Amino acid sequence: MNYQVYFQKASLKSYRSLQVIVGFSLFGMLLLEGAIATLDVFAYATPFLTFAIFYVLTLFYPVALPLFSVFTVTLLNDIFFTSLQNSQTFAILLSLIIVKRVINFPEQRDFLEIWQGFAVAMLIMVIVQAVTFLLWEWSWLNLQGLLFQLGITLLLYPFIHVVITRIALIFVESAER
Hints:
Elements: H1 3-10, H2 16-37, H3 49-60, H4 67-80, H5 88-102, H6 111-137, H7 143-176
Helix pairs in contact: 2-4, 3-5, 3-7, 4-5, 5-6, 6-7
């Protein structure tokens, strides 16, 4: 029996395994983000690490990140960390859909344009969260914590961008072999 032919037929451009790996990795990132939230430095103002990963994958590797994975991970985030009044699931999904529709980058992307696009997408997400919190609770969010969260996330985005694109490059190169 020729096993080489069997394994060649098994790897016919199926992205399901990549999507499962990304989904479980994002779930692990969600747990890491929850662990970071327990540190006194980030008291109730944890950086949006998973949103930064969602943004990079949405722009550069949309096949690896279906909306179902985004919905599942953000819903688990809302349930685990009892932030249903912030409706992070709705805010992130809406922001990523707007990013997919509106932000269109040319082939030669400048990193500052990508970073600005991330800042706009994150601002959309935060505005949607703030409005839903205002409608739900009839009170304002902690503005100081929110600005700290935005600033830390914007500072960490270049690092996250480089790490995620390098990891994705390793997966793409291994898939092409």
